[in-house]
Amino acid sequence: MCGIVGFSSRTKPACAPLVNGLRRLEYRGYDSAGVALESKEGIKVFKKTGKVAELDRLLKESLSDAEQEGFTIGIAHTRWATHGLPTVENAHPHVADGGGLALVHNGIVENYAALRAQLEKKGCKFVSQTDTEVLAHLVAVFDKGDFLSAVSQALKKVEGTYGIATISKRHPGEMIVARKGSPLVIGVSDGATVVASDVSAIVAHTRQVIYLKDGDVARVTPEGVDIYTLDNVPVSRDVQAVEWDAESVEKGGYEHFMLKEIFEQPESLRNTIRGRLDTVNGTAILAGLGLPPRDLASIRRAVIIGCGTSLHAGMAGKYLFEALADLPTSPEQAAEFRYCNPIIGPSDWAIAVSQSGETADTLAAVRESIGKGALVSAICNVVGSTIAREAGRGVYLHAGPEISVASTKAFTSQVTVLAMMALKLGRTRRLSREEGLGLCNEISSLPDLVSEVLKENDAIAAIAAKYAKVDDMFFLGRGILYPAALEGALKMKEISYVHAEGYQAAELKHGPIALLGAKTPVVALLCDIPGKEKTVGNVQECRARKAPVIGIVTRGDEEAAAHCNDAIFLPRTSPFTAPVVSVVAMQLFAYHVARIRGCEIDQPRNLAKSVTVE
């Protein structure tokens, strides 16, 4: 991983679209970048460690404007190191055939060591430590005149995952792309064809896209796209319209994408909720699930699968499903799921939660659940993503593009979708119409509640300034606010590099309290919902150890605020909406701590937006 861009045209220069496409993929996190450009003389490759700006500078220093305009076909890549250090030698594109073939790759070639040994025996010379260079040499070895066939034969030797794009001086005007487990999208327009690992790199050119499926191999030319299987059987893929445009992935005057996306949450929640609440019958309308009430009523257990932020949303979903639908629910870490031989079957409902819909571990868990006969659904933000397609049913978030690596609006939309799913489930069981109508009103109020939280931005920034230089923090929550505490801690550590731990409030005194002191602030979730009084007791334990406490407190609850050194005031919420509202406050708190510390907020070190390898 991380980002792929390809551009093919007869007349339009490729350099600027390739570099600008990489810029739109910078949010994924990366450590080097490179491009390969096709000309009549052959393939020219330019690579740099560091940011895309460094690559752009190299291109301008190496090529005149006239020379840049002469290249109309090329491929580009941003790399997040997996095999080998972040060096120029390990950066993509990788070359073979004496520099006459260039290839970029997302994914992992699991059998690369064996393949490399075979290729070295054939005389291939390697200059990197990457698994990707193996692919370039493999394609060159199999190239007997048919470029697409050479790529297909090479990929049949590969164990692992890939999204690739390759060009060759032997086949001018032709780009071959393929995918298995790592996303690739092709944008089609008059005069140019664009390839990318994410539609955000395409929407500046066209909103008409083709999502490749696993096992697809495509020949891309300026005139269009032909798609085949690895066995050279032609296949057809629908052209789909992207719902958002290029302006949606611009900062719009905000200092960082993360801040923009935090402030977009009232609108993203409106989009998530719109048309999905039945305020006559007190239930949710989730047509994408494709599950009539009888099927929903027959479910005996739910398993919510995710990683990171999506796992925290799933943990909140457990409380919602059990409280509203009396349905036993287990949140599961996706990376562990298929390796623990999970007990799951036809009476169980597996719900995969993934912002990108491409998370490799979650996709593996989806396939394991399908293989064991479970009912499977997905909650994703990206239409046409692999998890959404393979699950076959589910709910899209409609939260819009999320550019910052640290997820914000995806989390709040995920929890909101899970609340609507719990509502629909509950109405097939013991939840009355009146109770359902009450929950409909609570969910409908979320955009306005979040807007109220955003008005506290300046006050939150002032509190953040008091604690921005600490090295450690604890986040405490109880009940449905425990996963919110975990998410608050995750945001803090992701973007500010402050060591932060989320704990169930009662668990603190079973060991971690030994770490508390005057230099270890505690963020306590004290929303005025059941369990608050117990958490107040835990706050008193923290204060007795001289730890300063920042309370997340319901507006007007002066009694709870009195137990805290500082208080962030939130509008009153129900237990079912409290996680969404409180997390928005913690997103702002983490953002301002990171901003004051001078951290690179949108692209935190070592992190990638979409984790497409296990």
Q: What gap, in angstroms, lies between the N and C termini?
A: 11 Å
Structural domains: how many: 3
Mean pLDDT: 91
Q: Class of the largest domain in CATH?
A: Alpha Beta
Helix content: 25-40%
Major β-sheet, in short?
Answer: 8 strands, antiparallel
Annotation, overall tally of beta strands: 27
CATH topological fold name of the largest domain = Glutamine Phosphoribosylpyrophosphate, subunit 1, domain 1
Low-pLDDT runs of 5+ residues are none
Task: Work out the helix count.
Answer: 21
- Strands side by side in the biggest sheet: 3-2-4-1-10-9-11-15
- How would you classify the helix and strand content by structural class? alpha/beta
Tell me the β content: 15-25%
CATH architecture grouping of the largest domain: 4-Layer Sandwich
Radius of gyration: 25 Å
Tertiary shape: globular
Structural overview:
It is a single chain. The chain has 614 residues and is α/β, with parallel strands linked by helices. The chain has 3 domains: 2-249, Aminohydrolase, N-terminal nucleophile (Ntn) domain (Glutamine Phosphoribosylpyrophosphate, subunit 1, domain 1, 4-Layer Sandwich), CATH 3.60.20.10; 251-444, Rossmann fold, CATH 3.40.50.10490; 447-603, Rossmann fold (3-Layer(aba) Sandwich). 36% of the residues lie in helices and 24% in strands. It has 21 helices and 27 strands. The strands form 5 sheets. It has an 8-stranded antiparallel beta sheet, covered by helices on one side. It has a 7-stranded antiparallel beta sheet with strand order 5-6-7-8-12-13-14. A 5-stranded parallel beta sheet has the order 19-18-20-21-22, with helices on both faces. α16 (446-454) packs parallel to α21.
